[in-house]
Every structure is written in C-alpha cells, then in structure tokens.
Request: fold
Amino acid sequence: MKRLLFAAALASLSLSSQAGSNDQWFYDGLPWYSHPCGMEAFAKYGHSRSSAVRHAYEVTLRDPSQCSKLFP
Reply:
C-alpha cells in the first residue's frame, strides 16, 4: 500500500512539473521554434511581462530582420 501511495505521489509531482514548463512566448504566444528570433531570444525574453518585450515580439513577427536589434 505504501508503494502505491508513493507511486501516486511521484506521478502527481511529475505531472505538475511538466505542466509548469512551457515553450510558448508569454505562455500563450507562438512556440519558441516558430518565432523568427529563435531559442536564444526566447530563453532571455520569452516569459517576460514587460510591455516593451511584448512589443518587440510583435515587431519581429512582421520584420524578422529586427531580431538582433530588439532582442540583443
């Protein structure tokens, strides 16, 4: 019985940790691999709550050449 409870608790913890990891910009935008600026920009700015970062995200969707300027 203890093994069953331990296994259930372990499964519960692993599911909640997987739900916490998100590969989308701002948790509701494009996945990092679909955005033209790529993984490095996502790693630095992907979950920022700044309005400037959100604006840069929108600008670079329309003009990917701005990635290096807006996401240094």
Remarks:
- The two ends are 54 Å apart (CA to CA).
